[in-house]
Amino acid sequence: MANSKYEYVKSFEVEDRLLPCTWVVVRIDGRSFHRFADVHGFEKPNDINALNLMNECAKAVMEDLTDIVFAYGVSDEYSFVIQKASNLYKRRSSKLVSVIVSLFAASYVFNWHTHFPDKKLQYPPAFDGRAVCYPDDSILRDYLSWRQVDCHINNQYNTCLWSLIKAGKSKDCANSELKGTRADFKNEMLFTQFGINYNELPQLFRKGSYIYRKKVQNSTANGTQISRKSSFVVTIDHGDIIGDTFWKEHPYILGAEE
Ligand code: DGT
Ligand code: MG
Ligand code: MG
Ligand code: MG
Ligand code: MG
């Protein structure tokens, strides 16, 4: 049925197609997770179960939306990188963001009980989301580095803060003790006062998590013939993504020739 008299209302819709041929990053972030973490008694500063749940949700999003080539997560946030050439939802920002955010939130509720078998979900969590275009690989790498540096700075600060609080200091007192201090001071404080070697804390806490489609070679023997095929396995890891090493080992993620 074409053209009812009501069709004109479509003209009120705004165009929100993201720039073509650019990396699209959709970042989602837990809404008021400060409160959510308190209500659900998350371990401070890092709750392994909560982080694993975030990772499982991000993996579910990546497995569903194959145009996502990489994801990086820390705390209550996750960034999803959609390949430059993608035409998913005609690159409409509102569609991409709403599908990713709702799939993530639904997965969070769906998978809650496997990570917190003894804790009842007290209320439905929500996530916000936004999409940003980055025009080239180097700026995309800088975006991801920005998030991983943020992870490090926050984790180092929070590790010190909660060590002081667990040792009996008030939150205000612990905050003022740390105010304006440098990284080496914080590492020294953790080591001398609390016997914590910062660099030996789990990579999950210090570096966050990334998910990518790892290329694996499968060899199958058929008589004397050996045929090799490669496939991609969605993989979670917690290493450094600021330096070149990871990207040189997996050049296919950003689409460069091997
Ligand atoms: P927003 O994002 O503006 O709605 O507000 P929040 O409260 O979500 O603030 P945000 O996203 O800047 O900070 C994340 C909060 O989530 C932070 O206050 C502490 C909480 N959080 C995230 N991961 C953990 C965790 O593993 N353990 C604990 N205890 N809290 C966590
Ligand atoms: Mg926020
Ligand atoms: Mg948040
Ligand atoms: Mg956050
Ligand atoms: Mg529809």
UniProtKB/TrEMBL annotation:
<feature type="domain" description="Thg1 C-terminal">
    <location>
        <begin position="139"/>
        <end position="229"/>
    </location>
</feature>
<keyword id="KW-0808">Transferase</keyword>
<comment type="similarity">
    <text>Belongs to the tRNA(His) guanylyltransferase family.</text>
</comment>
<dbReference type="GO" id="GO:0006400">
    <property type="term" value="P:tRNA modification"/>
</dbReference>
<protein>
    <recommendedName>
        <fullName>tRNA(His) guanylyltransferase</fullName>
        <ecNumber>2.7.7.79</ecNumber>
    </recommendedName>
</protein>
<feature type="binding site">
    <location>
        <position position="29"/>
    </location>
    <ligand>
        <name>Mg(2+) 1</name>
    </ligand>
</feature>
<dbReference type="GO" id="GO:0005654">
    <property type="term" value="C:nucleoplasm"/>
</dbReference>
<dbReference type="GO" id="GO:0008193">
    <property type="term" value="F:tRNA guanylyltransferase activity"/>
</dbReference>
<dbReference type="InterPro" id="IPR024956">
    <property type="entry name" value="tRNAHis_GuaTrfase_cat"/>
</dbReference>
<dbReference type="Pfam" id="PF14413">
    <property type="entry name" value="Thg1C"/>
</dbReference>
<keyword id="KW-0547">Nucleotide-binding</keyword>
<dbReference type="GO" id="GO:0000287">
    <property type="term" value="F:magnesium ion binding"/>
</dbReference>
<dbReference type="InterPro" id="IPR038469">
    <property type="entry name" value="tRNAHis_GuaTrfase_Thg1_sf"/>
</dbReference>
<feature type="binding site">
    <location>
        <position position="76"/>
    </location>
    <ligand>
        <name>Mg(2+) 2</name>
    </ligand>
</feature>
<feature type="binding site">
    <location>
        <position position="30"/>
    </location>
    <ligand>
        <name>Mg(2+) 1</name>
    </ligand>
</feature>
<feature type="binding site">
    <location>
        <position position="76"/>
    </location>
    <ligand>
        <name>Mg(2+) 1</name>
    </ligand>
</feature>
<keyword id="KW-0472">Membrane</keyword>
<keyword id="KW-0479">Metal-binding</keyword>
<dbReference type="InterPro" id="IPR007537">
    <property type="entry name" value="tRNAHis_GuaTrfase_Thg1"/>
</dbReference>
<comment type="function">
    <text>Adds a GMP to the 5'-end of tRNA(His) after transcription and RNase P cleavage.</text>
</comment>
<keyword id="KW-0539">Nucleus</keyword>
<feature type="binding site">
    <location>
        <begin position="75"/>
        <end position="76"/>
    </location>
    <ligand>
        <name>GTP</name>
    </ligand>
</feature>
<keyword id="KW-0819">tRNA processing</keyword>
<keyword id="KW-0460">Magnesium</keyword>
<dbReference type="GO" id="GO:0005525">
    <property type="term" value="F:GTP binding"/>
</dbReference>
<keyword id="KW-1133">Transmembrane helix</keyword>
<feature type="binding site">
    <location>
        <position position="29"/>
    </location>
    <ligand>
        <name>Mg(2+) 2</name>
    </ligand>
</feature>
<feature type="transmembrane region" description="Helical">
    <location>
        <begin position="96"/>
        <end position="113"/>
    </location>
</feature>
<dbReference type="Pfam" id="PF04446">
    <property type="entry name" value="Thg1"/>
</dbReference>
<feature type="binding site">
    <location>
        <begin position="29"/>
        <end position="34"/>
    </location>
    <ligand>
        <name>GTP</name>
    </ligand>
</feature>
<dbReference type="InterPro" id="IPR025845">
    <property type="entry name" value="Thg1_C_dom"/>
</dbReference>
<keyword id="KW-0812">Transmembrane</keyword>
<keyword id="KW-0548">Nucleotidyltransferase</keyword>
<keyword id="KW-0342">GTP-binding</keyword>
<feature type="domain" description="tRNAHis guanylyltransferase catalytic">
    <location>
        <begin position="6"/>
        <end position="135"/>
    </location>
</feature>
